[in-house]
Amino acid sequence: MDVKNKRVVVTGAASGIGKALCEAFHEADAQSIVAVDMNLDGAQETADSVNGIAVQANVGNEKDIINVIQKADEHAGGTDIFCSNAGIGGVPGFFEVEASDWQNIWDVNVQSHIFAAKHVLPQMIERGEGYLVNTSSAAGLLTQLGAAGYSVTKAAAVSFAEWVKITYGEKGIGVSCLCPQAVRTAMTAQGPGVAGVDGMMEPDVVAQEVLKCIAEEKFLVLPHTEVAEYVSRKGNDRDRWISGMQRLQKQYEDFLTPVDMK
Question: Which InterPro entries did the record assign (predicted)?
């Protein structure tokens, strides 16, 4: 899909990848941009920089997503590209993660994509054209050492994006799933951890890769090219892959293990 003159919505737009996406779409001559975030001041700052509008939303709340789409309809007459980008790291570990923590990360990292697709796809299918960009993580293809909630929800996000592409791709719906490793955002402010094994990437570089994959209608967006090789190795021999990840976990054991579990 050519992003020129397209109407775009980006969640998690106050900073990081979301802000960089808004800027990249603006530079690529998108017709309109709706910057969405719980941080309304941050979203407004982004919107002002790209001549767009800001909408406050908790993406894990279905009513908020419905409102975002309605605001986009009012502003530009519809949505051509919806970037469901907002996500959280959640509570790390496993035994220390409460049921409420699981529900919170599930709502933000998975239900947000489901709500967006449920409520924006009908207008796209009716037009015979539309595009979803769902931000997951390399953890969704591989795993995230030391963080059960993040691993599970990011894998679910990949699976849902794939399902949408399989189900509606023949109806003119494009889908890309963004799966980076460490990116310089608020989530990695304390350091990249294990995800930084192949280096830290800047948000604007990631955003450019997203636009390239939209133009090519490529499903997986892998800014860290090493991830494709890891996925191939995992698929070819799952047991060997798991053994390798267990060895990696031992290298990061002190970093990964909560103090009260040592």
Answer: NAD(P)-bd_dom_sf, SDR_fam
Element (H, E) at 221: strand 220-221
Enter the tokens of residue 203: 């948000």
- In angstroms, the CA 259 to CA 123 distance is 50
Please give the pLDDT value at position 256.
67
Q: Between 62-76 and 112-127, two packed helices, what is the crossing angle to 10 degrees?
A: 30
Topology classification of domain 7-225: Rossmann fold (3.40.50)
Element spanning 168, H or E: helix 148-168
> Which DSSP helix (H) or strand (E) runs through 178?
strand 173-178
Q: Give the separation between CA 180 and CA 137, rounded to whole angstroms.
A: 5
* b/e burial code for range 4-34 (CB count within 10 A of at least 16 → b): eebbbbbbbbbbbbbbbbbbbbbebebebbb
pLDDT at 194: 56
Contact 185, 203 (CB under 8 A): yes
The 3-state DSSP class for residue 183 equals strand
End-to-end CA distance of the chain: 51
Q: Are 38 and 57 in contact (CB under 8 A)?
A: yes
* CA–CA gap between residue 182 and residue 247 (Å, rounded): 20
pLDDT along the chain (262 residues), means of 10: 98 96 98 98 98 98 98 98 96 95 98 98 98 97 94 98 98 97 66 59 94 98 94 96 91 61 30
Token reading at 50: 């790209």
Domain boundaries, the chain: 7-225
Q: What is the largest CA-CA distance in the chain?
A: 56
